[in-house]
């Protein structure tokens, strides 16, 4: 493991990059972090390793780049697989397909609705808030009585994908004027349980810092 070179290209507020870092931390894989300013001058390394989308995150493993966050999670899970290592995806084909489905659902629904809570106003913002709360309720029902989406013992790919959005909740709630806790209290219990895991808590960006950045973006000029 020590002979392997693992590099992560990321932009600090990114939920997509955060999940990659959490996966590496959960599996206790040493890596080098390189910050990218996606709104500024992109580095040659980013352009070379992700020439198609030119986006973060990128995982570079022994010189070979892997792109797209959930694809990276599956790569990490497959490459660093042993009896002692946390597995993010189940081995059963059907359960694995359901895990991928939920991860994709989260990225399509939570990301879009959450973004619109601060980029839209009036009726459009209200619709975004309704959609956001609705998808969280769906996920809360999916969680059921389990401690984590992956079961009662360990987090899964679904847990890492969803918790990667948590630092943005504060921004969406503050600007949108609503409370996630009021609508999905069980899901917030899941959040607090996830945050007891050092690999997760230390890998997520500061919610207050995200709110400050977004406030600067939307502030009238």
Structure, explained:
This protein folds into two domains: 6-79, Glutaredoxin; 93-218, Glutathione S-transferase Yfyf (Class Pi), Chain A, domain 2, CATH 1.20.1050. Helices cover 57% and strands 8% of the residues. It has helices at residues 15-26, 44-49, 69-79, 93-119, 122-143, 157-163, 166-176, 180-183, 185-194, 198-201, 207-218, and strands at 6-10, 32-35, 58-61, 64-67. The longest helix has 27 residues, at 93-119.
Under CATH, the topology of the largest domain is which?
Glutathione S-transferase Yfyf (Class Pi), Chain A, domain 2
Low-confidence stretches: none
The CATH class of the largest domain turns out to be Mainly Alpha
Domain count: the total is 2
- The multimeric state of the shown protein is single chain
Q: What is the residue-mean pLDDT, rounded to a whole number?
A: 95
Measured distance between first and last alpha carbons: 50 Å
Helix tally equals 11
At CATH's second level, what is the architecture of the largest domain?
Up-down Bundle
**What string gives the helices and strands in order?**
EHEHEEHHHHHHHHH
Query: What would you report as the Rg, rounded to the nearest angstrom?
Result: 18 Å
Structural class by SSE content: alpha+beta
Major sheet summary line: 4 strands, mixed
The 3D shape can be described as globular
**Could you give the order of strands across the largest sheet?**
2-1-3-4
Percent of residues in β-strands: 5-15%
């Amino acid at each position: 493991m020590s002979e392997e070179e693992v590099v992560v290209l990321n932009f600090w507020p990114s939920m997509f990059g955060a999940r990659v870092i959490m996966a590496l931390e959960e599996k206790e894989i040493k890596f080098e972090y390189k910050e990218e300013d996606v709104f500024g001058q992109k580095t040659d390394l980013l352009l070379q390793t992700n020439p198609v989308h030119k986006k973060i995150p990128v995982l570079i493993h022994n010189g070979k780049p892997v792109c797209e966050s959930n694809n990276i999670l599956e790569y990490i899970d497959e490459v660093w697989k042993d009896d002692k290592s946390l597995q993010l995806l189940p081995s059963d084909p059907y359960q694995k397909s359901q895990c991928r489905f939920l991860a994709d659902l989260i990225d399509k629904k939570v990301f879009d609705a959450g973004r619109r809570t601060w980029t839209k106003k009036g009726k459009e913002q209200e619709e975004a808030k309704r959609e956001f709360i609705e998808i969280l309720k769906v996920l809360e029902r999916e969680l059921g009585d389990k401690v984590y989406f992956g079961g009662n013992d360990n987090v899964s790919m679904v847990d890492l994908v969803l918790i990667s959005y948590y630092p943005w909740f504060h921004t969406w709630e503050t600007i949108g004027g609503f409370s996630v806790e009021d609508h999905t209290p069980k899901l917030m219990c899941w959040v607090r349980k996830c945050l007891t895991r050092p690999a997760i808590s230390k890998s997520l960006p500061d919610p207050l810092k995200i709110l400050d950045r977004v406030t600067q973006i939307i502030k009238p000029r």
